[in-house]
Write a structure and sequence with these properties.
By secondary structure, the chain is an alpha+beta fold. It folds into five domains: about 1-110; about 115-215, no CATH class; about 220-305; about 445-490, SH3 type barrels; about 495-580, Alpha-Beta Plaits. It has helices spanning about 1-15, 35-70, 75-110, 135-150, 185-190, 195-215, 220-255, 255-260, 275-305, 310-365, 380-400, 410-425, 425-440, 480-485, 495, 515-525, 565-580, and strands spanning about 115, 125, 160-165, 170-175, 175-185, 265, 270, 450, 455-460, 465-470, 475-480, 490, 500-510, 540-545, 550-560. The strands form five sheets. A five-stranded antiparallel beta sheet has the order 11-10-9-8-12. A three-stranded antiparallel beta sheet has the order 3-4-5. Strand 14 and strand 15 (about 550-560) form a beta hairpin. Helix 7 (about 220-255) runs antiparallel to helix 9 (about 275-305). The longest helix has about 55 residues, at about 310-365. About 15% of the residues are buried.
Length: about 600
């Protein structure tokens, strides 16, 4: 029992002290920084492997001693139970520590792939452990040199490369040359037996040396030269075909320029002439030709470099430069396909929803579809508002599915545009809101003759930002909607359609003319004026009795609000003619007449 306790104490001391060991790196500081870090990780993993192996041996001894004690004790049930409990605790503790050590070893293995043995460019295997003071990097370099020496030997026989077992290692030998030694630590690193690992390494060395000797033979050189010539001829043929195809494409575009190139114009504004359009097509054709030639040349280089062992590393680099980005792009597109389908479905549904809304708005605007309380002139503005809100909603929905939407750059640009829009659009937003209010207040519509402040004319355009008016002098005036909201508006066209717009003008006649005669002449002049409604009787109002004359106001109905100026002109002409024919003098502007005060100036 004392021997058992002594072994258990040694196990506890050993398991507690090993993780705190500080493994010296010797002359590692003389190696490059990356090799030093790799050596340090390999040493840590090697130390843990040794610890794991020794711990297993100690645990085996302790467990064996406990089992022997259990076999000797048959009568003392309590002591047997205590030993069984102690054995169980040891096994549980060993399992936990073993799992922790193995996890740390695997982490170190992942971070330390070892030093490659690559005598001919391709890595045959890696060396991860040292032998005495012989570090992994030095072992890998020495093994590579010995394998190269085998390849340089003119009488290499693969069957002469053998694995010889010794007490501490399995040696791979060729004659008297020890190519490498596979130790128990090497086997522990890969969790394999020493003999299996040595046999695998020997097979790889035989294959690599045999292939290298075939490559360096005269037949191998002839084959490589033939492959080089074939690749060069193939590339030259592809270059010739590419130039031939694109030259014919250029000639075809020139000969059919009238058929394919009509220029580019937007609303009668020429953006590109047919000649410029043809020139752009020819430039694109030439750029595409150069791009195809460049990729042909670039893909030919790895093929050429891959023929010779000395340049195969360059070929791998060139392939990776193309394959890695292309693979990343293809993988990114493949992973994005579900999101892309979602975006397409959302846009498709939104598109047909907009088409349905447009159809309904056209029907309402034409009067085919009547909705109580909804005026036809509201149809197009309402459609524009709903379409904008629908597009905004669609953008918000698909935004998380857009590639790069979660990148800091995308978020920064979005924030910048939002701040820019907020700072620079206060007046624009005020005009938009005013435009919405004006639309649904219906103070006027396109084609109405209105008076807005000091401006009188016909409404030719209404947008969410401005209202455009053309005066009778063909002056086009743009008024912001916020200004429209802050001024009064007179609409001459609204009443002219149903009630008739009343045109009025005033004349001043002296007191010597009978008012009945004046009324008669004014009404007669109105009835003979073109544009005055015949079914609505004109009327005259005497609006003031001034010092020297009476002011008469003629009122007449018209349904032609846009012709107000012309109707007024004809009306004034007829008034002058009627009063001149009747001998009644119009005293506007008035003048003062001298008369005898003894005789009253009363009409007969």
């Amino acid at each position: 029992m004392k021997k058992l306790l002594f072994i258990w104490a040694l196990a506890l001391i050993y398991s507690g002290s090993l993780p705190a060991q500080n493994v010296k790196t010797g002359k590692d500081t003389l190696l490059p920084a990356m090799d030093s870090l790799k050596n340090q990780s390999l040493q840590q993993a090697e130390s843990l492997l040794v610890q794991e192996s020794q711990q297993q041996k100690i645990d085996s001894i302790v467990k064996a001693e406990l089992r022997q004690e259990l076999q000797k004790i048959n009568l003392n049930v309590q002591k047997q139970k205590d030993l069984e409990d102690q054995l169980k605790r040891i096994e549980e503790s060993d399992s936990l520590k073993k799992a922790q050590r193995l996890k740390r070893i695997e982490d170190l293995k992942g971070n330390s792939p070892g030093f490659p043995v690559a005598p001919f460019g391709d890595t045959l295997f890696s060396i991860n452990t040292r032998i005495g003071s012989f570090k992994p990097a030095e072992r890998a370099s020495a093994v590579s040199r010995r394998i190269k020496a085998l390849a340089d030997s003119e009488r290499f026989s693969p069957d002469s490369l053998l694995v010889v077992q010794s007490e501490s290692s399995s040696d791979i030998v060729y004659g008297e040359l020890v190519v490498m030694a596979v130790t128990d630590l090497d086997a522990l690193w890969y969790s394999r037996s020493r003999d299996d690992l040595a046999g695998e390494y020997a097979a790889k060395i035989r294959t690599a040396v045999t292939a290298q000797q075939k490559t360096n033979s005269i037949l191998g050189w002839l084959i490589r030269i033939g492959l080089v010539l074939a690749i060069l001829l193939g590339a030259a043929g592809i270059f010739y075909l590419v130039n031939l195809v694109f030259n014919r494409t250029r000639a075809y575009l020139r000969s059919n320029k009238e058929r394919y190139f009509k220029g580019l114009s937007i609303k009668n504004i020429n953006i590109l002439t047919p000649e410029q359009n043809l020139k752009m097509a020819l430039v694109a054709n030439n750029l595409l030709r150069l791009l195809v030639l460049f990729f042909t040349f670039y893909l030919a280089l790895p093929l050429l470099f891959g023929i010779f062992p000395e340049t195969r590393a360059w070929a791998a680099v060139l392939w990776r430069l193309v394959a890695n980005p292309a693979g990343s792009i293809a993988l990114g597109i493949w992973n994005y396909l579900p999101k892309l389908f979602t975006v397409i479905v959302i846009i498709w549904v939104a598109r047909y929803a907009v088409k349905l809304l447009k159809f309904l708005s056209l029907q309402i605007a034409r009067g085919t579809l009547v909705i109580k309380g909804f005026y036809p002139e509201w149809a197009q503005p309402t459609f524009a508002i709903v379409r904008f809100l629908l597009y905004a909603f669609v953008f918000v929905v698909i935004f998380p599915y857009l590639p790069g939407s979660d990148s800091p750059i995308f978020k920064g640009v979005s924030l910048f545009l939002g701040v820019l829009f907020s700072l620079g659009s206060s007046s624009a937003i005020a005009n938009v809101i005013a435009g919405l209010v004006i639309t649904y207040m219906r103070p006027f519509k396109i084609g109405d003759r209105i008076k807005l402040g000091e401006v009188t004319g016909d409404v030719i355009d209404k947008t969410f930002l401005v209202t455009r008016i053309r005066t009778i002098k063909n002056e086009e005036i743009t008024v912001p909607n916020s200004t429209v909201m802050s001024n009064y508006t007179v609409n001459y066209s609204t009443s002219s359609r149903d009630l008739g717009l009343i045109l009025n003008t005033t004349v001043t006649i002296g007191y010597d003319a009978p008012w009945q005669k004046v009324h008669e002449l004014l009404i007669a002049a109105a009835k003979e004026t073109e544009g005055i409604l015949k079914d609505k009787e004109p009327f005259v109002l005497q609006i003031s009795l001034d010092d020297f004359f009476v002011t008469y106001q003629l009122n007449a109905y018209t349904d032609q609000a846009q012709a107000m100026a012309a109707i007024y002109s004809r009306l004034h002409q007829n008034i002058q003619d009627k009063f001149s024919q009747a001998g009644v003098e119009i005293v506007s502007p008035h003048y003062r007449a001298m008369r005898d005060g003894n005789k009253p100036a009363m009409p007969q």
